[in-house]
Amino acid sequence: MTKTARWMSVLLILISFGCQNIPAKKKSKLPNIVLIFMDDMGYGDVGSYGAINYQTPNIDQLAAEGMRFTNFYAAQAVCSASRAGLLTGCYPNRIGIVGALMPFSKIGLSDKETTIAQMLKKKGYVTGMTGKWHLGWQKKFLPLQHGFDEFLGLPYSNDMWPYEYDGRPIGKNSKRPWKKKYPQLPLIKGNKKIKEIRGMKYMDSLTYYYTRFAVDFINRHKDKPFFLYIAHSMVHVPLGVTDRFRGKSKQGIFGDVMMEVDWSVGEVLKTLKKNGLEDNTLVIFTSDNGPWLNFGDHAGSTGGLREGKGTSWEGGQREPMIARWPGKIPPGTICNKLSSTIDILPTLAEITGAPLPKLKIDGVSILPLLLGDKKANPRKVFYYYYRRNSLEAVRKGHWKLVFPHTYRSYEGVLPGTGGMPGKYNWDSTGLALYDLRRDPGERYDVKALYPQVVAELQKVADKAREDLGDDLTGKKGKNRRPPGRVE
Ligand code: MG
């Protein structure tokens, strides 16, 4: 063999070897989305946000491998409204969902609104939900009619049942005799009731049921892009936990329940990994509103923020938010920029290329924040609406201007114990300006020092009032839409 021929054969061997090792070009697949939504979990209830007396290693691992937000807000500080905001990208008062819908309520999420599930279906996603829905209990309002292919969960809160908050049947001397008329709490699969949650025995298994559904859903749909919404009923009272976690924390049943939810997060992560989906899945973990503090040892912690659930103070609305998406979100990072659950829908639209809803929404994409762009600041302002349509505060940058209003307070009264509530206090505030960077606890009104900031935030509020109205100032607003109704 000549020298040239020898070189040629070596070259051919190298080329063929190289060819064998060039991986076939992978078809880029849309990322899976797993959205884990807690109930009544406060800013301080996760290890990486300061929880003590119990561990949340799986949620903390999400934070270590992803991004942790410190100025992230639920759309409103109460269950139904908050969920309406999360799923539609709108301030909930824009779409007529206020407060917490009750078992006899005749309204629900309008079929004119577009949910995350409906939006992602346009890109071929399989969509599943497990847990608490709370956007209308009649069939026309249930998840399957709002873009979900599968559903296993409750139509509303786990305390809307003919039992006391601690799970005892309503007795003769109950302070809540009206609850006797509540129907048994239904566990719904698809559109059908498959079980009644009669007492704590079944309540104790809810987190387990939801987790089993979630794991099964991922295993069954591993080959398609999927959107899985896990809306835990916990840690809303009554707190239920399986025997595996009972007594395991140093914070009573509340800590035990957080440990079980953390286990659930771990099961979801394990299942993603087992199916090779870890890298192509965006996992988001957050909560609907702050802790229900008058339940004392059965309530969570705001981590020092003021007040709790049902108030527009920081403890009611600021929530942990953790997002993990390997290769996209820089691991172990913290984002201090302003953002909200209403931003999740437009963020997912940008990620997947799905069209935004036709009707006006309020969310902005926070994808640049997730990708670690330090200069990005997509959300400039946030409106704190509460009750039917009251603009109680606005935030711009690190300033929060609170408008005169009365509110239920957890201060100055003793909370309950053992799963039963203590009384609320009622309080009122005048106009107040808080610098949330120096004073996250909202204790020092500095409006006299910064009149120009007050004027600037008043303009933000005027814009909100013109658009959405405001009961506190008697403004009607131009752009609110009605909820869905049944006759
Ligand atoms: Mg809640």
Short description:
The protein is α/β, with parallel strands linked by helices. The protein is built from eleven helices and 19 strands. The chain starts with a helix and ends with a strand.
Task: List strands and helices in order, with pairings.
Blueprint: H1 3-21, E1 32-38, H2 57-65, E2 67-73, H3 79-88, E3 107-108, H4 116-121, E4 126-132, E5 150-154, E6 185-189, E7 192-197, H5 200-203, H6 206-220, E8 226-231, H7 252-274, E9 281-287, H8 314-317, E10 318-324, E11 333-335, E12 339-340, H9 344-352, H10 367-370, E13 381-386, E14 390-396, E15 399-402, E16 405-409, E17 425-429, E18 432-435, H11 451-468, E19 484-485
Parallel strand pairs: 1-8, 1-9, 2-11, 2-12, 4-5, 4-8
Antiparallel strand pairs: 2-10, 3-19, 5-6, 6-7, 9-10, 13-14, 14-15, 15-18, 16-17
Helix pairs in contact: 6-7
Bound molecules: magnesium ion.
Task: Give an account of the 3D structure.
The radius of gyration is 24 Å and the shape is globular. Helix 6 (206-220) packs parallel to helix 7. Helix content is 25%, strand content 20%. A hairpin with a 2-residue loop joins strand 14 (390-396) and strand 15 (399-402). The protein folds into two domains: 32-380, Alkaline Phosphatase, subunit A; 384-485, Arylsulfatase, C-terminal domain. It is built from eleven helices and 19 strands. Strands 1, 2, 4, 5, 6, 7, 8, 9, 10, 11 and 12 form an eleven-stranded mixed β-sheet that branches. A four-stranded antiparallel β-sheet has the order 13-14-15-18, covered by helices on one side. The chain has a two-stranded antiparallel sheet with strand order 3-19. It is α/β, with parallel strands linked by helices and 487 residues long. The chain binds magnesium ion. Magnesium ion binds at residues 39-40, 79, 236, 288-289.
